[in-house]
Amino acid sequence: MNNKKLGTFGGVFTPSILTILGVIMYLRFGWVVGNVGLIGTLLIVTLSTAITFLTSLSIASISTNTQVKAGGAYYMISRSLGVEIGGALGIPLYLAQTLSVALYIMGFAESLVAIFPALNIKVVGIVSTLALGGLALFSTKATIKAQYVILFVIALSLLSLLFGGAIENSSIEMWGVPAAKSVGFWQVFAVFFPAVTGIMAGVNMSGDLKNASRSIPKGTFLAVGTGYLIYMALPIILASRADASTLVSDPLIMRRIALWGGAILLGVWGASLSSAVGSLLGAPRVLQALTRDNVVPRKFSFLASGYGEEGIPRGGTIVTIIITLVSVILGDLNAIAPVLTMFFLATYGILNVTAGIERFLKSPSFRPKFKVHWGFSVIGAIGCISVMFLIHAVATVLAIVFIVGVLVWLRRRRLKTTWGDVRNGMLLQIARFVLLKVKPMDDAKSWRPNILVFSGAPMKRWHLIDFASGLAQEKGLFTVATILPEEKVAQDKIYQYEKQIRDYLFDKNIRSLVRVVRAQDPFSGARYLSNAYGLGPLVPNTILLGDTTDVSHHESYAGMITHFYQSRKNVIILKDDQPLPSRNKINVDLWWGGLQGNGGLMMVLAYMMQNSPHWQQVSVTIKMVVSSEKAAAEARKNIDNLLASIRVEFRRKILVSEKGDFFKTLSVDSQDADLVLCGLKKPDNEFAEYFEDLKQKTATIPRKLFVVASHDIAFKEILS
């Protein structure tokens, strides 16, 4: 064990209690008592501490389940809810702590200049930042020892207040000043609540603790309990020594009440500096953890290093000092102070959510020594969210927007981690609930594509995967299926192949399921998989595959198509001699033979293409061949009525061919189309010969989608 690491008292209790007993206690507690009276103040203290205590329970539960390394709250959240959610809170948490250093130092400078007007406020702020920063750069233990001195000063100020006397004849006012002159209960609550939110100062020291799993719960509970006792005693002292109106009007009323008023000033300065020190120690360690997990871009990798026997994150500390100096020089930070508070509260809320989810799911990996019912965590999360809106609704919205923005940025970077998280367990619980509720999709109105793609190796027939992804986006599911030969691939290699395909699809930003099976030949394997694959009502309803080029496989291929059709699955065959453009304008020709059967499915597929974000612009033209102008007029009328009734933006073109040579007309009129949709006859014993003849007749068309609809699907109802 590293003797340079910190224990419970120095590493958790001291920074936490010093942040709790901050400037709000000295400068605003009298105002709180004056406005809502003794009973109101005790109620506010109890409610505020209850929310903090519930969060402490969640922290204790998470920290006793596993080793907590550097990063504090970020580390806990990211290891449970994933690196994206952890980072989305970790980055604003780091910024909030860094800017909090500037806020505390500016508060210290302002109070010092008020006593010594000759001093320059910015010079005091810069000197204070450099002094505290230098201490944090070279010794964490020395910085903690400096906090011991501040802790002694605060204790001295409280004793001076305790042994002081009344400044006027007054009785304890239970409900403060008259209602016409006082601020409302919840407004006062909002002002006071940040005073009890200092527990994160100790949690953020997780990487510097000898035993984080023991010190974090013990030190946090001790700090919350000590703070609660002090905050419950102070209102009695204040209410018994001054009238409510006096308490409201004088921010430094404690200085007048105390035995030695100078001790209160020292306490105010000590509280400001201790809060600054707590944030100055915590912020770089959060940044260090973010960098180690690659949340921070790799070019800043130097921030991940720790120096000396104490592993001090000097890179992160220097960055924090620079940001603080710039903030101090620029001046007023009051405008963003509410947003910073929201970042802290959002972190507390997510910690409660994390512990609640872990406990609710009863994951075998979540076995904390400190067990908390998930209901307490939920109450804590609701409390945090409620307080956020009570304190500052606009700041809450801005904080949420910022966090969501960071989350979107991190998701686009597609970070990979070496640890699991609770999200899979949570999703499995949801999936279990849904699967037991979902009924077989006999209702056409609820039909969605669930495509089984027989692509083989994804690199060889990528156009099939790309097409299926375009169809299924935001509307359905699709599975990339591969059949491997039994004699060449052992069963224990299947998982490895599936993982390789999943990783490949992940890198290509394709959201798909993956299934790999072994079989004697690809056709028997495809039959088996189409029969067996699926879960409950979620089974593939559509098969997508390419064509076979091996003459010896024609009969087996045709038999496979027949099997799919008889299994009540739609079959679409993409014969793509040239890749289909993914983003440019695409012209699709749909050769029409009526809405029944294949016609309905082709219209559904064309509509899905037209409305998929996968393709930039898809123009669909329904084409039909008739034998006379009279038939053409009737066909135009029927198709126009159909398109109006089903509300799709398709064009139509009726072609007259007196000789009735359909395929010659198709080949000429669709020569420049990007994709041509054609229906197939129902598969039967002569399907192999029929399909080969069809391919010959459409050989001049480079990209074709042959469609055969299952006789079990009423596509007319889907479109209506």
UniProtKB/TrEMBL annotation:
A GO molecular function annotation here is: chloride:monoatomic cation symporter activity
What are the protein's UniProt keywords?
Membrane, Transmembrane, Transmembrane helix, Transport
Question: What highest taxon heads this organism's lineage?
Answer: Bacteria
Enumerate the Gene3D superfamilies for this protein: Amino acid/polyamine transporter I
Coiled coil residues, start to end: none
Membrane topology qualifier: Multi-pass membrane protein
* Cellular compartment(s): Membrane
Amino acid permease/ SLC12A domain residues: 12-422
Where's it mainly located?
membrane
Membrane-spanning segments:
12-31, 37-60, 81-106, 112-136, 148-167, 187-207, 219-238, 258-283, 311-330, 336-357, 378-410
According to the entry, every stretch annotated as the SLC12A transporter C-terminal domain falls at 462-577, 584-656
Quote a single Gene Ontology cellular component term: membrane
Family from the record: Belongs to the SLC12A transporter family.
Tell me the protein's name.
Answer: Amino acid transporter
Please name the source species.
Marinilabilia salmonicolor
